[in-house]
Amino acid sequence: MSDYKMIPCAHYDYLELACMHGYRLDIELQDGSLCQARAITTQTHADKTEWLVVEHQAGQQALRLDSIIAITPTDPHASFGRVMIACQ
């Protein structure tokens, strides 16, 4: 069984918005790192884990949603600001 912790649906909606608009994001991760990338899409894998696919200089990367602490769009016209995604 997976140790994946689902995020609240309201938080997932912000990730979907970011993907729809291709927002560039500052993504704060549980391990203390910061990822700066453009939101591409979300995915659900067969084991029921959910992922955010982003694109940055090194290419595409999938981030497990429960590893994301917060996202902040860097686009000045973004429809939302910093959003807490998963609990620490």
Question: Secondary-structure blueprint of this entry?
Answer:
Elements: H1 9-21, E1 24-29, E2 34-44, E3 50-56, E4 59-64, E5 68-73, E6 83-84
Antiparallel strand pairs: 1-2, 1-5, 2-3, 3-4, 5-6
Please characterize this protein's 3D structure.
The structure is a single chain. The mean pLDDT is 93. A hairpin with a 5-residue loop joins strand 2 and strand 3 (50-56). The protein has one helix spanning 9-21, and strands at 24-29, 34-44, 50-56, 59-64, 68-73, 83-84. It has 88 residues and is mainly beta.
How many distinct helices?
A: 1
Q: If you compute it from the alpha carbons, what radius of gyration comes out, rounded to the nearest whole angstrom?
A: 12 Å
Helicity level? 10-25%
**Sequence of secondary-structure elements:** HEEEEEE
Basic shape: globular
Number of strands: 6
The chain-level mean pLDDT equals 93
- Describe the main β-sheet briefly: 6 strands, antiparallel
Q: Structural class from helices and strands?
A: mainly beta
The side-by-side strand order for the widest beta sheet comes to: 4-3-2-1-5-6
Distance between the termini: 21 Å
What fraction strand?
35-45%
Which parts are unreliable, with pLDDT below 50 for 5 consecutive residues or more? none
